[in-house]
Amino acid sequence: MNNEKSARTLAWDDYRFILAVGRAGSLNGAAKRLAVSHPTVFRRINAIERTLGARLFERARDGYAPTPTGEDVIAVAAEIEARITATERRLAGLDARPTGKIRLTTVEPLLYSLLPPILARFRRAHPGIVLEVVADNALHDLGRREADLALRPGGQPPDGLIGRKIARIKASVYRPRSLRLPRGAGPEDLHDQDWLVPDGNLANILIAQWLRRQNYDRRAVLSANSLLALRDAAVAGMGLVLLPCYLGDPERRLVRVGEPLEALNTDLWLLNHPDLRRTERIRVFADALREGFAALQPRLDGASGAAPAP
Asked: What kind of architecture, by CATH, is found in domain 3-87?
């Protein structure tokens, strides 16, 4: 059977399911990508294979692996997807009206504490624009239009994206108000204390790297993939925590230990795809984010100060 001829009999929606399973390697992962149920993916893949008269995936206990035929069809699906998304980006870039939907991806702490007032002001100024925000620690693919803009702390933007630094974030060590430390103890003198450390998809952020260099991770009594969870655990008295100043300073049940650590200064980047740079709704929203975070810079620097030590 000619694989290319068989592949051409598929609709784009069939390709979407095949591509999702191929990328995720499992039905559950594909279901999450497609926002459908596990049984829906299962039935759809089986139906596609019956239509083609060919097996696209080998079923195993640890997931779905593409057969040689499946690899051919996945490659075709990826090429079609790339052409469709490129066309969508070009069409979106021609839109000069500040209306429509904007998808923004960012990390959870920024959405929790800093972004809502900026988003509210923007909506009042531009009621024709609907905002869709995804707050997690995954880097969504702007090239495939999983998001229009990304707001991320870190280093240089990936190739193919336009990036601009819009703020600087500082971080400090915090202790629960109830925890007493030796007089004069600074951030680098706390090896005998219990620590709360980032883990999972936060294991490689600058904060986690610094904790490992200090060997503080060896005294971890709690690890989590959420800075908000670590902050709340510190408030509950579980141990010391290293946080961005904008998260630690406002919490009056925490006390800053020493000054912000210069080695942990992090740039906040606003990223978007070049094809969208002339889209009016993207432009006005990017301007609003830059202006909003410029006004927040003292708080990001820790200039507002933490709760005074008792």
From this structure: Orthogonal Bundle (1.10)
